[in-house]
Amino acid sequence: MFGGNIPPKCLGRDIPMIESSGARIRSSKTYATSNECICFTGNTAGSLSLFPSSVVMRIATPEMYGAGLYPEEALAVSYSVSGRRREFAAGRACARSVLSNLGVIPGPLPVRRDRSPAWPNGYLGSITHCPGFCCAAAASDREFSALGVDAETAGPLAPELVTLICRSDDIEHFSGLPPLKFSDWPKLTFSAKEAFYKAYRPLTGAFLDFLEVSIRFSVAPCSACGEFRVQINTPGKRFGRGQPAFEGRWMSSECLVLTGVHRSAIYGNTLC
Under DSSP, is residue 155 helix (H, G, I), strand (E, B) or coil? Predict the structure, then answer.
């Protein structure tokens, strides 16, 4: 990750359980959890696919938070608090589920030195979690060279963080966008840059600061979802001319903002 803040929890009792068909998210039945609520309204949940249909995405079920871990996975959270171990377990269980849908035999997903999951040969993916929510996405590396997903609780970004996350051209861009009902554009920008970095870092090995990247959003008629473009502003960290870098999509609800980024495998990976 670039870095960032921990947004406040969205308090409540009932959580809409969100399932996916391919990479399209839809709302389903509700279940209860203690003091945490992540929910999508019906229109928001069904209005956008975060990824192309060949990407498999799934939202963690309550049972996944108590799933077992392989020894090499458990080692990564052996000194972590209970809440962190549970969200880690949910992420790994969710990732194994999407890989199974791609025909991969379940196995360990250990942690690399950069703390990202080590995906099986021939596949790539991304895991995200925030209070009350966890999901994973995966695909074949014959179709995609990069994949990133990020979830954040709704609500505005802390004012003192805005200039650490958003460039001046990002902030100028916000002035031409409609207001978000449950969040704000700096918070969505934070999520979009996090999703982008999850895709960019494994592909290139390069580090980026938040302010090295610009985001440009487009908004669907519902005003709760849309797409975004990523522009890398630092020489030596950009891709070749004529190569679209990454495609991004976003959605927003009362309690959650969710962003996804992908890059087709047909484009080269040389930086310039």
Answer: strand
Q: For residue 48, tell me if it sits in a domain.
A: no
pTM of this prediction?
A: 0.82
CATH code for the domain of 238? 3.90.470
CA distance 72 to 110: 6
Helix (H) or strand (E) holding 228: strand 225-232
Work out the angle at residue 124's Cα, subtended by the Cα atoms of residues 123 and 125, and round it to the nearest 5 degrees: 135
Q: Which domain holds residue 195?
A: 158-264
Q: Which pair of structure tokens corresponds to residue 29?
A: 């039945």
Per-residue pLDDT, averaged over 213-242, amounts to: 87
Residue 165: name the closest of 189, 129, 184, 182 by CA.
Answer: 189
Nearest alpha-carbon partner for 244 in 219, 260, 259, 261: 261
DSSP 43-91: HHHHS-BSS-TTSEEEEPPGGGGG----HHHHGGGTTS-HHHHHHHHHH
- For 205-227, the pLDDT digits (tens) are 888 999 999 999 999 998 899 99
In a domain, 86, yes or no: no
Q: Within its chain, how far is the Cα of 215 from the centroid?
A: 15
In the chain, how many domains are there? 1
Helix (H, G, I), strand (E, B) or coil at 100: helix
146 found inside a domain: no
Give the span between the Cα atoms of 249 and 227, in whole angstroms.
Answer: 4
b vs e for 97-119, b when ≥16 Cβ sit within 10 Å of the residue's Cβ? bbbeebebeeeebebeeeeebeb
